[in-house]
Amino acid sequence: MTPLLDLERELDALRVEGLLRAPTLASDTSLLVLCGNDYLGYAREPLPPSTHPAGAGASRLVSGDHPEHRDAERALATWLGQDDALLFSSGYAANVGVLSAIAGPGDVIVSDALNHASIIDGCRLSRAEVAVVPHGEADAFAAALAAHRRARRRWLVTESYFSMDGDSPDLARLRAIADEHQAGLVVDEAHALGVLGPEGRGACAAAGVAPDIFIGTLGKALGLAGAFVAGPQVLRSYLWNRARSFVFSTGVSPVIAAAVAERVARCRADDAGRERLASLGRELRATFPEGSLGASHGPILPWIIGDEEEALAHGRALAQAGILVVPIRPPTVPRGTSRLRITLHAKLSDDELRLAAEAFAARRC
User: Fold this and answer.
1) Which of 140, 174, 297, 364 is most exposed by smallest CB count within 10 Å?
2) 48 vs 262: CA distance, rounded Å
């Protein structure tokens, strides 16, 4: 059997298990999309005509470093109260680049069991020892760090607002644990940035916590594309030299970078959008049976179905009712926890929310 035929066989196996994925066109405006990450509704707006270069032209270490990049990084760092920031091409590239750069043999990374795939892959590429602890269990983080007290460097890695479960860890406790064990705290704020905290600065800011390394994206609440890492100047300099996903990638489009400062300013001032988003989350959550959405809060509502085929059936029925919620299945989530990951955005109207609530209630009957 040739390698390509073997791939076809693997695809057939995925199809049998109900795990095969196919593209979903975002241009289908006939459906009410409730499964995106455009939390404040900015992504649906076109950028104004630009005179900035469309492409960076090269890696920033070679000849692709443009003034727009530094303007964007300074705007992000100022917003978050950090010394500096560094743009990456995507959130995946940021997590993989950071973790594989800051850790190596002789180090240990303690990682939440439900951390994003990009964090998992970054941990693996680092070649550090990785201790995976049960989701959200602060005591397990402390125990793992204590068990590796002789490691050269120790890092505690978590998301601040978990994208599949819509819950948050006790960030203040994790900060204290990291300090007690002389570990660095790395926090992925991808889904909290713009949504939670004062001026939308994220869940860490809401908890009064300063992570050692802050990872955020431009493609969610800010409605653009790309990502960034913020922290001390030494971190930016180190990543500039050692983060392979940055070093060996063409720089972020200057057109996108040029839009960052305006989006940051808009997001900082958009308390009304955050209040609307929080209100929508409370209203829709109240229509579900108590406890059926786990410990979620905010705009992410994880409706756990369990079986993959049943989740797909729910998704098809909702599409027929005019609502797009793509079922989330393994390996994105653990087996037996396939779900409809419902997400809200601040531009949602009261009528649209009512339509969604009625459609979800019909499927629960």
Assistant:
1) 364
2) 11
Q: Which residues contact 294 (CB under 8 A, 6 or more apart)?
A: 165, 166, 167, 302, 304
Residue with tokens 């720089």: 251
Report whether 106 contacts 131 (CB < 8 A): no
- Map 110-164 to HEC letters: EEECCCCHHHHHHHHHHCCEEEEECCCCHHHHHHHHHHCCCCCCEEEEEECCCCC
Distance from C-alpha of 158 to C-alpha of 176, rounded to nearest angstrom:
14
Query: For residues 246 and 236, is the Cβ–Cβ distance under 8 A?
Result: no
How far, in Å, CA of 331 to CA of 163, rounded?
14
* Active site residue ranges: 37, 116, 159, 163, 188, 191, 220
Closest C-alpha among 130, 127, 139 to residue 108? 130
Q: How far is CA 309 from CA 329, 338, 342, in A?
A: 9, 9, 18
Q: Please say whether the beta carbons of 345 and 36 come within 8 A.
A: yes
Contact between 230 and 203 under an 8 Å Cβ cutoff? The reply is no
Cβ contact 185:156 at 8 Å: yes
Tell me the C-alpha distance between 319 and 326, whole Å.
9
Structure confidence by residue, pLDDT tens digits, 192-234: 999 999 999 999 999 999 999 999 999 999 999 999 999 999 9
The answer to whether the beta carbons of residues 97 and 88 sit under 8 Å apart is yes
Q: Read off the pTM.
A: 0.94
CB crowding 293-320: b at 16 or more within 10 Å, else e: beebbbbbbbbbbeebeebbebbeebbe
Model confidence pLDDT, tens digit, residues 31-89: 999 999 999 999 999 998 999 999 999 999 999 999 999 999 999 999 999 999 999 99
